[in-house]
Amino acid sequence: MSVLGALIGVVLITSLGVSPNTSVIGALVAMLVGRIPLGILVRMRSPHRQNLVQSAISGATFAAANSLLTPIAVPFALGRTDLVWPMLGGAAIGLAVDSWVLYRVFDSKLLAATNAWPAGIASAETIKAGDTGGRKAAVLGVSAVAGLLGALAKLPTAAAGVGFLGNVWALAMFGIGLLIAQYAPGIFDINLSQEFIPHGLMVGAGLVALVQAVLLMRNRKSRKDRTAEAAAPAPAVAPAPQVRTKDAAQLRRGLIQGMVLFIGGAVFVAITGGIASGMSLPALIGWVLLAATAALVHQLIVGLAAMHSGWFPAFAVTLIVLIVGLVLHIDTVPLALLVGYTASTGPAFADIGYDFKAGWLLRKDATPWLLYEMDGRRQQYLAQLVGFAVALVVVAIAWKGFFEEGRVPPVSEVYVATILAGLDPGVMGTLLLWAIPGALIQAIGGSSRQMGVLLATGLLVATPAAGWLVLGALVVRTGYTVWRRRGITDPAARRASDEQSEADLSLVGAGLIAGSSVHDVSQLTKTL
Known about the structure:
Layout: H1 2-15, H2 23-34, H3 39-42, H4 47-77, H5 84-105, H6 118-132, H7 134-152, H8 157-163, H9 168-188, H10 197-216, H11 223-231, H12 248-272, H13 281-309, H14 314-327, H15 332-343, H16 347-363, H17 369-404, H18 410-421, H19 427-445, H20 451-461, H21 466-484, H22 491-522, H23 524-527
Helix pairs in contact: 1-4, 1-17, 2-4, 2-6, 4-5, 4-6, 4-15, 4-16, 4-17, 4-18, 5-12, 5-15, 5-16, 5-17, 6-7, 6-16, 6-22, 7-22, 8-21, 8-22, 9-20, 9-21, 10-19, 10-20, 12-13, 13-14, 13-15, 13-16, 14-15, 14-18, 15-18, 16-17, 19-20, 21-22
């Protein structure tokens, strides 16, 4: 399945410029294998084995397409084929660090398992429906068919699915951003992306999000509280799934370790890419620190956007790094390597979050929960590493044939065209101007809502009709919740009714996303 996932990723990113989420496909194949009446294959009926399979295939897809092939296409499109192998090595390091950081910090306050991670819910609900059948399977199946039919009709049904999941405030800002991006060119006669307005908003929101992440690293408990906790006897029963498995100290260590490892990867790229010998020592140190910081910030912004919206603006955030490099007057080759190294992080970070969310949902009724959850998450990480290793081999073998046929990821060609064209003198002023409202919106929403990042994500994604589907789903979600609680006055009963409403609509949203994912993978037939 990892080989299949890597091939799907390579073919689609070089032909259609997209990388589909293949985790639902992996889950469906695993479920079908489990129905074969052979002793060793019957074991695949286990939801947890199916979870490992979908983790491996989705990891291979995103790693091959986004984290490996896209970065090495940058020096190739620049005409420097001699830098492809050094860039592949640097991208592999970026991918490895990317996955390691997410494994270390998943289910912290910054990247909580209780947040949406929409594609993860779709995978988990698909597996659970196949395991239990009944009403859940029927609702999921009907929703998946609706998602597939909508996608065939060129409607972004995954956007509607996302609207049934996650934080209402974050999704509302995402939907508003999508609508503004769709209608602003016609109403105001302005192309937002060409004016770099969404990028400016993301710069401001991203900086505030980074500050918020740093603040979440603080352990706010007093020394007295920590001493009392240490002295208290261990609980006989493991904590409920609502308790986070990673605290502020673990978040802090994970991000610091990530920064150190990203610095090591940047040093590797600088030496093997030959740019170290052409720079002064201060310039080299500055390039390494910029590359490491860009990689870390890129993965966090992409991860936060994916966690709430199911979309990640990796292209746009990498473009921001490119613009910063142009402002700093970094030479062409060092800038191309900086862009490639930055692009290697983010998508795999988000994908592992989706898969960990799926596993968390499948394991949340286990006893003892904490031990089972942490061991299951470790097994998922190992499955992801299998997918990454397969992706690296596939890309190393396939890149030359694809690139020589002119099949280069479109985003890589955009990066190179931007590098060669240079920067309009007014772009930096635009970025700084629009960074102010982006920062304010992000600060007002707080770290739990990520309103600024999601507004900028909607503006950058700019998928036609997606805004209406997101906001329409939010209206349906609110209306259904109010309708279910009609006549209920007891507060506890109202809470129970609201929880059931969320469960029902989460199933619908998961089906819509699953159907859309199946359609995305089916695009492979177009290229063949």
